[in-house]
Automatic annotation (TrEMBL):
Pfam families: Ribosomal_S17. This is Small ribosomal subunit protein uS17. Belongs to the universal ribosomal protein uS17 family. It comes from the Bacteria. HAMAP family: Ribosomal_uS17_B.
């Protein structure tokens, strides 16, 4: 069975080798049809304590490491990439 990979925002890095990642998804309300946001927090393993709060990361499902930790951080998602420069001659 393939491992799930989710993308979310780190909301806490207080624990040793652990970060808390908030994953947000959009779903359609079953009766009213409005698009609403649902979020869930996942505890993820960060072996080197290299990720900080506020970063966007990808997490992967793993075998349980503790009571709450069943995910590990794969890598950063570069959301603040500098756009390529486009010169427009006026």
């Amino acid at each position: 069975m393939p491992k799930r990979v989710l993308t979310g925002l780190i909301v806490s890095d207080k624990g040793d080798k652990t970060v808390v990642v908030n994953v947000e998804r959009k779903v359609k309300h079953p009766l009213y049809g409005k698009i609403i946001r649902r979020s869930k927090k996942y505890h993820a393993h960060d072996e080197a304590n290299e990720f900080k709060a506020g970063e966007t990361v990808r997490i992967e499902e793993i075998a349980p490491m503790s009571k709450l930790k069943t995910w590990k951080v794969l890598d950063r998602v570069n959301t603040h990439a500098t756009p390529e420069r486009v010169d427009v001659d006026a």
